[in-house]
Design brief:
By secondary structure, the protein is α/β, with parallel strands linked by helices. The chain has nine helices and twelve strands. It has one domain: 3-Layer(aba) Sandwich (Rossmann fold), CATH 3.40.50.300. A hairpin with a 2-residue loop joins strand 11 and strand 12.
């Protein structure tokens, strides 16, 4: 479903220098599978999520990104989103003045329009949003508030997963979704993610810690260091990393 081959990417730093971040990364995530990427700070995990979704400022200098058999590395972020790529941010942005419920309706209809589908009517959307919000314990009062403005960390992450439940993307990239969550919020968010598992949908879960993977059991775990994948294995690899850390993989990546 998602196939990355020998990907090299760089970013321009604040002082105008170009810094290579991804250095020959290869990864394949089939439909129906959940893969986790773990690694230390600075290994390139978040950069990978930005590159996959087309964030400005990141230049790919070699390699390829195929999504459902189509090369997408030159496509705009909105094109990739319309094709079904979704990124849950580590630090969700605030949008003052825009009610969350309005934002969700506009996002859903923008994607449907881009795919040549009929837009959802107001009554249809209200039925949909009530159903999905209930799954995550999101109140209508929260939906009326501006996007992420004044929300706690847990509330912001719930909203990220609510967006995914509404948009029903074909492939989810979850960038440190567990960051800032207490135990109860972690379980709620994880339940929402697990509800999105499907035979025709793939997921890439980026995390530092094994605790998220207690709730979202991955099919494969990959260790990232120095801009590339240095080790892959089953779910048990996450337990090994929790116990032993990343030091030995940093040596291999050097």
């Amino acid at each position: 479903m998602l196939k990355i081959e020998n990907l090299h990417c760089k970013v321009e730093t604040a002082d105008g220098e170009e810094k290579p971040i991804l250095k020959g990364l290869s990864l394949e995530v089939p439909a129906g599978e959940v893969h986790a990427i773990m690694g230390p700070n600075g290994s390139g995990k978040s950069t990978l999520s930005y590159v996959l979704t087309g964030r400005e400022g990141y230049e790919c200098t070699a390699g390829s990104i195929e999504f459902q058999g189509e090369e997408i590395s030159e496509q705009a972020p909105e094109e990739r989103a319309a094709k079904g790529l979704y990124l849950s941010f580590q630090y969700p942005v605030e949008i003052p003045g825009v009610p969350t419920i309005t934002f969700l309706k506009e996002a859903l209809n923008a994607q449907r329009k881009a795919r040549g589908e009929t837009e959802v009517s107001a009554p249809e959307f209200m039925k949909l949003i009530r159903e999905k919000a209930k799954q995550l314990g999101v109140s209508m009062d929260m939906l009326k508030r501006a996007v992420n403005v004044g929300f706690s960390g847990g509330e912001k992450k719930r909203m990220e997963i609510l967006q995914a439940l509404v948009l029903e993307p074909k492939f989810l990239i979850l960038d440190e979704t567990d960051s800032g969550l207490d135990i109860d919020a972690l379980k709620t968010v994880s339940d929402g993610v697990n509800a999105l598992r499907a035979p025709d949908r793939g997921m890439l879960v980026i995390t530092h810690y094994q605790r998220l993977l207690d709730h979202i059991t991955p099919d494969r775990v990959h260790v990232m260091a120095n801009g590339r994948i240095v080790k892959s294995g089953g779910p048990e690899l996450a337990n090994e990393l929790e116990a032993e850390g990343y030091d030995k993989y940093l040596g291999e990546a050097a």
